[in-house]
Design a protein that fits this description.
Blueprint (H helix, E strand, L loop, with lengths): L1 H22 L8 H6 L2 H5 L4 H6 L9 H13 L10 H29 L7 H10 L9 H4 L6 H6 L1 H20 L7 H15 L5 H24 L4 H10 L3 H21 L12 H17 L3 H18 L6 H21 L19 H21 L5 H18 L8 H12 L4 E4 L18 H9 L8 E4 L1
Parallel strand pairs: 1-2
Helix pairs in contact: 1-6, 1-7, 6-7, 6-10, 6-18, 7-18, 10-11, 11-14, 12-13, 12-14, 12-17, 16-18, 17-18
Length: 475
């Protein structure tokens, strides 16, 4: 067991180092200058009161915390590495650090949900983390099931906020799964109330996710207590369920639900959702096509879904084992969450770069839910199963794990062209520089008008890459 723990630890350390080294070589994105120098209305009005009072329409009115944290990090984090690296290299190291922290914080939190332990050196946690880490794709199946975006800005808006969703619901999950006391200490209650506020204004997905999971949790609690109530009248059953919920939990869920609904409402006034619109019915048609393409494209999702199905059947046939009933119930509610989330996605609007509504970034909650479902069922069967041919199950899991590692082995310096362009800007004595290249530079596309590069030039000067503002353009 000791040597196995060392092996798992070394494997996870390798994954951390390898992931960091690859994240360092992704180019910068076009939203970074806007995070630092734009979104002034959101920064001045964190909770969107101008929407209520003046019917104001502006970019990201319900995303204050995502914007402010991204702005602060992008602006200041590169200076951490200045003692060890050049100013340009420090910028890329800063993005790699944030993505790696987000990556393995999610792995740790999901492993905690799977095992129930928080100790880093615990064998169960190491095993669970090793099972799910290869599913976090950086290259192989990334376009299908990527969690950590190539863009550091998108990581702030999609993967990173989900860490706080898990932190919010983790105490309630532990109460359910391990039959713990419903009593929460005052400090935890205060922290959960603050997390409710933070989650409601942190990224585009958090408010609907909070609303869906809160609804599912209350529904589960009501159904669970209905069987214990002994009442025939529906009103009596409801009152029985309410009486069994501590006031602190009712307060937390009420505040979280209210803030999420409010955030969704003011999000309707997001000017970024008005760029391009199509009818809701057409969005659902595109969604169905998106589901088809996802299930018939690369093998990432089909393998994951097939393994979850096989694991579920095995656990169902061994329901006499400890925790099997609870795992099946967790899987059922997780599946309901996935269905509700996908069904509601078209209401979030349409973007031309997501032609089929589904894309790996909007599917981050679904992918994480599937990773959790795979992880908890596989871990449980490895630890508890009484299958006759257990060795074949181990071989299957090993082959699947190796497959995800193998397809994700690609290592390319995707930012090489951008780095060369920035080095040329820094070395030039000209005020306006022509870049003869085929890549974007702190942008989503090539920029042909140097006047549009004011904020990018200011950002390069702020990071110390250039001594003065230098504008640039491309063909």
């Amino acid at each position: 067991m000791k040597y196995l723990k060392i092996f798992l630890t070394l494997f996870l350390l390798f994954e951390i180092i390898f992931s960091f080294s690859r994240y360092e070589y992704f180019p910068m994105d076009g939203d970074m200058p806007a995070m630092v120098y734009g979104y002034n209305q959101v920064k001045a009005d964190p909770f969107g009161f101008n929407v209520l009072l003046h019917d104001s329409v502006y970019a990201g009115p319900n995303r204050y915390f995502a914007i402010s944290t991204a702005s602060a990090y992008i602006k200041n984090a590169p200076f951490i590495f200045f003692p060890f690296a050049s100013s340009l290299k420090s910028v890329y190291l800063a993005w790699a650090l944030f993505k790696t922290i987000t990556h393995f914080l999610l792995v740790y939190l999901i492993a905690v949900m799977i095992t129930g332990t928080k100790k880093l050196w615990d064998f169960d946690l190491l095993l669970a983390a090793a099972l799910i880490t290869p599913l976090f794709q950086t290259t192989g199946y990334h376009k299908q099931m990527g969690i950590i975006d190539y863009s550091v800005t998108y990581t702030f808006f999609y993967a990173f906020p989900f860490c706080f969703i898990i932190l919010f619901f983790l105490p309630f999950y532990r109460i359910f799964f391990y039959n713990l006391s419903f009593k929460l200490n005052p400090l935890l209650i205060c922290m959960l109330l603050l997390l409710s506020l933070f989650n409601a204004f942190n990224g585009p997905l958090n408010p609907p996710i909070m609303l869906i999971i809160c609804t599912i949790t209350v529904l589960h609690f009501f159904i669970y207590n209905e069987f214990k109530s002994g009442h025939n009248n529906i009103i009596d059953k409801i009152f029985f369920s309410i009486r069994n919920i501590p006031f602190s939990i009712i307060l937390i869920f009420f505040v979280s639900t209210f803030l999420s609904i409010y955030s969704i409402y003011i999000g309707k006034y997001n000017s970024e959702n008005l760029w391009e619109t199509i009818p809701l019915a057409e969005r659902y048609e595109r969604l169905l096509l998106g589901i088809y393409y996802y299930l018939t494209g690369k093998l990432g999702y089909p393998i994951l879904l097939l393994m979850i199905l096989v694991n579920t059947i095995i656990i169902y046939n061994q329901r006499q084992l400890p925790f099997s009933e609870k795992i099946l119930r967790v899987l059922m509610w997780a599946f309901i969450f996935i269905l509700l989330y996908i069904f509601l996605l078209p209401f979030g609007g349409y973007r031309n770069y997501r032609p089929y509504i589904l894309r790996y970034d909007t599917l981050v909650p679904v992918t994480l839910a599937l990773i959790f479902m795979y992880g908890i069922t596989t871990f449980y069967l490895i630890k508890n199963t009484k299958m006759r041919n257990k060795i074949y199950y181990f071989i299957t899991v090993t082959v699947i794990t190796f497959n995800f590692i193998w397809v994700d082995r690609d290592f390319r310096k995707l930012n090489k062209c951008e780095k060369n362009a920035i080095e040329k800007i820094a070395a030039s004595n000209e005020k306006i520089i022509f870049l003869n290249n085929d890549c974007s530079v702190i942008n989503w596309t090539k920029e042909t008008d140097y006047k549009n590069n004011q904020s990018r030039s200011e950002l390069l000067q702020h990071w110390g890459i250039t001594k003065e503002r230098k504008l640039f353009y491309q063909k």
